[in-house]
Specification:
The protein is of the alpha+beta class. It has one domain. The longest helix has 11 residues. The N and C termini lie far apart (about 45 Å).
Amino acid sequence: MILEIQPNIHCENCSKCGRRPHVEQQKKFWIVTCPNKDCKNFVKGELVNIEGWNKINKPNTSLNQKQDFKKTA
Ligand SMILES: [Zn+2]
């Protein structure tokens, strides 16, 4: 079963192809995933984890910023 994510829910586009993810139900798991299977970009959990998806698909370079922060600290 595939569900569209409501337009009013903040969710980042796929960091690889820029498409909006959707939600798939697989038995007891919920998967926030890019509709493009080739991206292999998804977050799986017992709850819909859009926050987790947003963390790994941030459009800005927050990971690099963290590394810079460590260096200067
Ligand atoms: Zn994608």
